Amino acid sequence: MYRDPVESLEPLHHRQAAIRTLRVGMIGIGTVGSGTFRVLARNRADIAARAGRSIELVMVAARNLERAAGIVGDSVALTADAMHVATHPDVDVVVEVAGGTGPARDWVLAAIAHGKHVVTANKALLAVHGAEIFAAAREKGVIVAYEGAVAVSIPIIKALREGLAANRIEWVAGIINGTTNFILSKMRDEGLDFAAALAQAQALGYAEADPSFDIEGIDAAHKLTLLAANAFGMPLRFADAQVEGITALQGVDVACAEQLGYRIKLLGVARRQAAGVELRVQPVLVPAAHLMAQVNGSMNAVMVKSDAAGLTMYYGAGAGSEQTASAVIADLVDVARLDGVHAAQHVPHLGVHAHATNALAVLPRAAVYTSHYLRVPVHALDQIQAIAAGLAERKVPVHQVALAAERPGVGPQVLVLTGPVEQGALDLAVHALQARAEVAGPVSTLRVESLEG
Hints:
Elements: H1 5-18, E1 22-27, H2 31-42, H3 44-51, E2 55-61, H4 65-72, E3 77-79, H5 82-87, E4 93-96, H6 103-113, E5 117-120, H7 123-140, E6 144-145, H8 156-163, E7 169-175, H9 178-190, H10 194-203, H11 212-215, H12 218-232, E8 242-243, H13 251-259, E9 262-273, E10 276-287, E11 299-306, E12 310-317, H14 321-338, E13 369-377, H15 384-393, E14 398-403, E15 413-418, E16 421-422, H16 423-434, E17 444-448
Parallel strand pairs: 1-2, 1-4, 2-3, 4-5, 5-6, 8-10, 10-17
Antiparallel strand pairs: 7-9, 7-11, 9-10, 11-12, 13-15, 13-16, 13-17, 14-15
Helix pairs in contact: 2-14, 3-14, 6-7, 7-12, 9-10
């Protein structure tokens, strides 16, 4: 029977008008919190249309109430007590953007215990306490969403859970720390050493006064832990990740990598193998022509290899107030859509799959199988073949040997690119190489990633 389209739409309009506003309480009003407030206010109508209901910030917890009032005005209730926000009956979802792993854990667990959904950009919190938090959320049937905790403006969690839901994920690799990518870009483009590039990053606000979490690879490992959990349905295994930062990286290796046609990037890699999962963060050589090698400055990128979709790549800002806010609000939109839906249907629900009780093991460092770059200081230029022979004696496949270009203050250097070899075998070969009379100093080694299908 024909039905007038206006008549058919009118009940839907009434139903939408009756849907209650999603009331948000936020803990923290710093860089991310203030960006979230601004974007929510500026794009209120578009966000409501996409969410199917209004999303309103009703309460904020802040250490400095005067500063907070200057940001949100008099339209939002303010408190210095974060637990008040976490447990207040007029708050439907708690946005935790204060950071840290101590009090933040208590606030999040309290919010969950009171039946509230949680959105957080706190990767350290989830990497360290995620198993406890997600178990509590499962029991209460609430959502814990964390897109902003992984790759800032890049919706990679949505890509893994929704866009690639039909796929078996084979590996995920990403430049997921903007600070270190900025430093490495400066070392390559301007020939700076690590200390000078770090100082420039700090002067421009890309690095904190204490940059340890970034430059030691810890921040990237937190994010990689969350990526692996989503890609493979494994528990959060941050403690088992192999983490190497860029503090020991020398400018000469950045230059030598360029000479060989590669660029050095701090890469997080989670790769499924027959015996388990590689879970590692380290500086690696990437072919200079590869898309990942073109990711410069503070930008981030994540590449995923899956069985049906093949290779896909996601690129975006790796830091920023409103860039992170974009991800936080996307999670709020999901909560608005899914609130009231059965817990099993929540898309951004658990950080691990509910059935993943006995996860794939994380492979030890010695079992990781990759190609490698070696820089070997030698006493004389004619010792290049002796180095290649020394590696061959140890069954290390040698694909390329070259002399490094001359550089002021740097003696002769032999550069080697190996074929794939287990890390344990390479370590033994390098140890033996180091003892040879031809070798004039410490041998530098880095892994090589082709990032091919």
